[in-house]
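By FrameD: structure tokens wanted.
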Amino acid sequence: MNDKQRFSRSRILQEGVKLSDWKIPDLRALPEEVREKTENRISALKAFFIQGASCEEIQNRYGVAKSSLYLMIEKAIQFDSRGEYIGYRAAVLQFRVKPNERHVNSTDQQPGDANDFSQLLNQHPELDRLIRRYASLYKSRKKGGTRRLVDYHAEFLKKCGELGISTPSYPFAIQDKALRSFSRHLHKKAEEIAQEKRAHVRSAEDLAILTPIEPLQEVEVDGHSIDLRLTVQEVDTYGLTCVTEILTMWIILVIDVFTRCVLGYSLALGKNYDQTDLLIAIHNSLAPHRKPKSVISGLFYKASGGFPNERNPELAWCCGLLYKLDNAMSHLAKDVELKLRNVVGCIDDFGPPHKPNERSIVETFFRYLVDNFSHRIIGTTGAQPKDEIIKRLSPKGGDLSILLTMEEMHQALDVVISDYNGRPHTGITPHSPLELFLRSVEERKLIFPKLRTENRDLRKFTCRTDLVTVHQDGPQSAFVNFKGARYRNLPVLSFAVGGKVMIEWDPMNISYLRVFDLKGAYLGDIFPPSLWSSPHSEKLRLRLQRSLKIGQIAYREGDSIPDLLRSLQLSEGWKERESATYNLKHLGAATLRQNTTKLLKPANKPTERLTIGYILAEDKG
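Answer:
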């Protein structure tokens, strides 16, 4: 250390170091406690270089000791592998200027294998390039990979032999032949390749930090449980109307950040919403808005309200640039990610977990919805179990007839959102969200990318696809295995036995599958056995099959899906509201039929059920 020239602030500036070119590293991925400490260290570097603060001032203000400050400065003025100053990256804890390599200087010291693999790659660059190629091809079994890691390792050892490396040289001299080091290096290369692929969205990450300056530049998506007790009215087998209470519903909202304008929403049943409900909300925000059926007399929309694509048809199917979501499991689903990136053509930003302020616009709207809608209606469940408003607005005597039905709540909610878009907003004074959106588009002559025509159908937007093998159990009997059932009754499949076809299914109705050849030509529909021939969801099928497998319920000749589901609910002691909600979401009726008969294969094509985001027994489209 004594032979090094001591640095000084003035000498660094005289050498022409451009401090303005130093970029602040992105710290969002760091834990909160580490991020705060790193931000203090960055501020200390800025204070030293730009503000001319002394070491004592820096230590008192930022808590960075003089020795730590000097170490950071020494790193900051060094160059990285690309010839750029390390700069403020030196403030990141445990940041290394060079990789940790071990050098053996003494002949008496026996080298171990801790860094022998790195030395091997340095001596033979072609091995490093080979591992990089393996890293671009390798996938784990969970992600659909077919080749094992040991297969790549065997080829790596073969290449070492071609280069003249043999026993007793490394890696043949050790027991596992450097399998662990090979695996560690391959995964490291795979991560580097992934980071390179994400490099083109760096500008999008900057967009997530900058304030949007025009409509559809940034869109927030999130879900919120509606704090209301709701009912469903159905006609039973005796022709009488029965009222059943269900669990509260969810609203999944899509809102524009710049204008605060709600673009669309969907409603979902159950304890939580899934990826299909989320995709319906995104589709509804792109498609021309459709008002729900009017069931409340005297309820009207304000003339100043509405939705953007309702007031200006040219805005229908216009896609946003950046969609911000949280880290809910339904948001992180692989199918959602593929639809957002490949179909909508946007950039998804999931942000840090447990940080609702990252999506402050949609969270603020939910507060507006609570204050002006759900906490002002009879049957509200309040913000917490001990909320006084629950007792004040509860139906007297347990009378369910004065609670809102699902259809009434849907119409009232649509009016509230439409009127919100047309009201002056304090965050964008003196404009209303809808006015600001429409005027910005018109006066700035903005043009947005639109969803392709073939993707505008709701079924196409929410369906899932897979390649499956066609099997045969008779001369003219070809079938496809799907979710534990054999789908058949399509003669053309007999010509594809042993080959692959593509199937397309609606996750809310797997009572039939659509079949396509590998060129995309539609072949027809196939149907399961009679037990599974009535409309039901994919999740319900899997749950019933699991219960049958473990012996929780038993199948009797002539049983149907409602019979099995009733047995499951009785065995687990489901509550009435929970059962009604689950039945409505996955079967289409809150009350299961008491008298069931063996169901035959439907003569006509089953109807779609994804029209409004939830299922009603009388839906026809």
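The radius of gyration is 31 Å. The CA atoms of residues 274 and 620 lie 23 Å apart.

Cheers.
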